[in-house]
Amino acid sequence: MSRIRLPLPARPVAVLAVAAGLLGLLAAPPDTPAPRTVPAAAVVENTVTVHYWTRTKNWAAHHLHYAPDGGSWTTVPGVAMEPACTDWVKKTVSLGTAAGLQAAFNDGSGTWDNNGGANYALGTGNITVKDGVVAHSDPCADTTPAPAAKATVYYSTETLGWSTANIHYQPAGGAWTAVPGVGMQAACTGWWKREIDLGTAASLKAAFNNGNGTWDNNGGADYALGTGVSTVRNRVVTPNAADPCAATPPDTRAPTAPTRVTAAADGVSVLLTWDPSTDDRGVTTYQVTRTGGSGGTVVTDVGSTVHSDTGLAERTTYTYTVRAVDAAGNVSAASAAATATTGDRPATPATGKPLGTDPRKDPIYFVLTARFNDGDPSNNRGGSQHVKSGNAANGDPMFRGDFKGLIQKLDYVKGLGFSAIWVTPVVLNRSDYDYHGYHGWDFYRVDPRLESAGASYQDLIDAAHAKGMKIYQDVVYNHSSRWGAKGLFVPTVYGVRDSQWSWYYDERQPGFEYDGLTIDAKTGKSYYNGDLWSTAEPAGNTCVNWGKPTGGKSAEGYTVYNCQWPSPTSGMFPKELYHQCWIGNWEGEDSRSCWLHEDLADLNTETPAVQNYLIGAYAKYIDMGVDGFRVDTAVHIPRTTWNRRFLPAVQERVAQRHGAEAAQNFFVFGEVAAFVNDKWNRGSVNHSAQFYTWKERKEYDPDDAEAALEMYDYEQQQGTGNQPTSTNAFLNGNSYHAPDHSRFSGMNVIDMRMHMNFGDAQNAFSNGKDSDDSYNDATYNVVYVDSHDYGPNKSSERYAGGTDAWAENMSLMWTFRGIPTLYYGSEIEFQKGKKIDCGPTCPLSTTGRAYYGDHLAGSVTASDFSQVSSASGAVATTLQQPLVRHVQRLNQIRRAIPALQTGQYSTEGVSGGMAFKRRYTSGSTDSFALVTVSGGATFSGVPNGTYTDAVTGDVRTVTNGTLPVAAPGKGNLRVYVLNGPGRIGTAGPYLR
User: Model's pTM, two decimal places?
Assistant: First the structure.
């Protein structure tokens, strides 16, 4: 690189400022005054066309930096020159009235030719500069101009789900385009195209984005592209590539016809299921054709392999055929016909309809229904472990609480300020200790031990909705009980029944059907294992040494036999319906395809029969009007299966029955259990919560089982550094921006990282922020401290950090992004420090799942959320507890400030431990809040204006963009709202 000497005294020259290298070219001021202005008619416009020789420079780009005589220098590096002819570039510039110019040339990256420091003195007309020699000529006369270099860039979005694409680029030696760059044109399915004129540059750097803040910049390295045709697909650049759209043959091949179409009537509804069709490029929809009745022929488009046809005529036969359709519009042949005859119209049809509002507005109260409040003692049941567990001695049957008890105390929950209730699974369970609901047996039936006359599940949904409260139903897709799943598969023989085990394996009782509630007259039991015993080895058994003693003893001292308990390797569960292995690695592929526990028979969710069974079952509860699903053990089902089958089926059913808005706000949040403190679950993306919030990034095998393996391998190879990111949770400076949910899978998640770090609120806050770019939208994360499974740091006890720490945790949860969720009783630190679950080895009364109803005895009436108009008895005492008053006011504040419900957040310009700013803007709503929890904070660069603290009512006027806030104290907080409503609620034990 040549160094520039100081300007000569007689004329201005360009000089480079030197500081840690040559930083930029500076223009020297002219030493003569500008010419006087002459009449416009007399002005002569001089031009010069400067030709510059390129062969000896080997620069990627060429710039002319100049100053007309008596005028100012151009801004470094000057103006780009353009191809003229072979080995020459040129630039024509206007000199005004000047008769000449000073000039220097550079490559745009700091390499200069400035005539040895003297600059070039040039005149007007055609000028050539070749290796320092100036001449008056046109070297390209009578030659064909050299074409400008061009780059044709194709970018693939097939795995991204973008609806548009931009290319942001920088030619070598040139400047970057303005963000977001220039729009690309749709070329063919999954591909976008842009042709770029590079001038004299031979290459460019590029990054791509969807125009809404989602970027692909090659992991921060940008993409290096050359001239000619380049393709960029899944971060792989192919130079000199063939046109990816030129060889795309038209799709003329139709899918195969659907098979195994079955139709089953239920009242005046028909449930239709079928096996999926295959297609070389993928099936997009199915056409279901119905004939029969007075309605003629009806054709319905369906996105899954289950269709529920409702509102039909009574006692009428209907015939159905199904065709598959691919993206090109090719239609398969019709399936074989299936028929069904409807029955009588139900006397009391379901009346439920989801509330259909944004779920982020609704704090969640989580109850184990069977342990919350007992409204009907007649449906209480203790089960086979009633005595052994110690529950009998305490008069505390495992099934004690019920829907009637919950309906009776809806005003308690509303009085706390919660507008959503998460209830444990409601389907009929079957196991030795199944009060919690996670051992589903009949997925199509509500467990009778939870219902009463006038207090059915439908009655609970309707009663909650009447009070403006939502019901989120816990659902299980991953497993059934070890007794199988009624209507799908129930094993008929299992285990060995001898004199020791006769108490457990009952003999068959003709005419008796297990429902969990009805007591068998012969045995006096409501639980019943009569279908599951044998004294002879069952036909087709594959379990080794069936019926032979293992050499071990049970807890009671009884002889244990091989194959005594349900097992995936016994051959008693068909492989097309149940997986055939035990889990070996919780962060391995087998965690999604093997049994977790003997009580959790792992369903083969990649087969149509299982998919249809589950889709049909949960359609029933959607029809009843539930507002969302909490998905148990979501991580143990491949993301491909969720994205292909279950999530679209949920959306389709809600939209079909309740409308598009209800479908958009039907809240699905999954338990993707990662019991570690790091961002990615031990480095495995497939086992991390945020992974499940995204659509797939590429196409996989049409077979769901093969697709699951392909996806697992692909994403593990991509690793944690190549996962999609999002700015949906973050403010842009102080501004709210429309979120981009185009790549959202349909499943939100429980915030496992905050949960695991809630031993300390500051840890939870720091870890939560660190993960938020990897969720599709972290403002939908469900956030809790502890639950029916674990406390923070995978503690097996209910949280016992103290009342002050609880208050601080709550203050953070109710103001930070996400949806605050409280496990029943935490508002009074119920059972703090007690082991959450010890199975039947100890009484439930000593655990974190103890019965809560004693604290709710008496009457309570809520006039509004967080407002109790009257209370008497034990519940009145409960409502006076410090954390109750704390959560009531937190709910008041959150409900009054939209930014705390649906806002994005930022910590930019914010000092302090747990401090942040949040904003939500929509239509006439513009809510901006500055929050600090426990500690002091300073907010810099915020909009000027009047801020009012929602806690104290303190009014502060900001004129310099800075608002300092003193520390409010542990558990307390400050929420300064721009043009805010003032103090919300009254001072309490912490918020004061």
Answer: 0.75
